[in-house]
Amino acid sequence: MANYDFLKDQLEPALTLLSSLDQDQTIRYNELFVEDEEPAPQLKEELIPVKEDEPIKTEPEVNKPEDQPTPPQHQAAKGSVAIDPALAWAKFESEHYGYMKENIGDLSENVGLNQRFMFTKVLFDGNHDLMMHALKSIDQSESFVDAIEMLNQRYVAELDWDIDSDEVGEFLHLIFRKYNHKS
User: Of 180, 5, 41, whose CA–CA distance to 103 is shortest?
Assistant: First the structure.
């Protein structure tokens, strides 16, 4: 704010800068700006006296009864939903993903920092240790299919993964890059 006050006299007025914009549509500049001389309207706070003997009353929430749980904010996968290893392999083996098939070593060492934060937050409910355990379990799997089956058994249903989400797709793509064979 101090810089603005110091440079205020050197700046061009807003009306001069915006005058070229009204060539296509007339702009009523007086409706856009409040001059500095006019003070902003002040809101008055209404104080309600409270007697010390009376308990303070609060209004109950109308939309959230206490006996009902809050619904989840995202569309979660159902318990019976699982990742199909054959479909996932076919998707990544297609021309669109085929050029990105470079073998990577241990997933636990080759997942990028941004991916670690994203996977931890979205797929593993903020539990970094759980994600690292999953990556090590994937690294110990014999094949792509074994890794996906392990994910289905341990994480997909239990953590309510949305198997159509971008995060799950990116996670599966890393697994695809790790294995050069399907089964």
Answer: 180
Answer yes or no: do 89 and 174 share one domain: yes
Exposed e or buried b for every residue in 40-79, given b needs 16+ CB within 10 A?
Answer: eeeeeeeeeeeeeeeeeeeeeeeeeeeeeeeeeeeeebee
| Site of tokens 């704010």 | 1
Q: What is the mean pLDDT of each run of 10 residues along the chain (183 residues)?
A: 75 74 65 59 55 56 49 39 82 62 78 92 94 94 92 92 91 85 60
pTM across the whole model: 0.53
Of 122, 149, 123, which Cα lies nearest the Cα of 137?
Answer: 149
Structural domain boundaries, residue 171 = 85-178
- Asked whether residue 94 is assigned to any structural domain, the reply reads yes
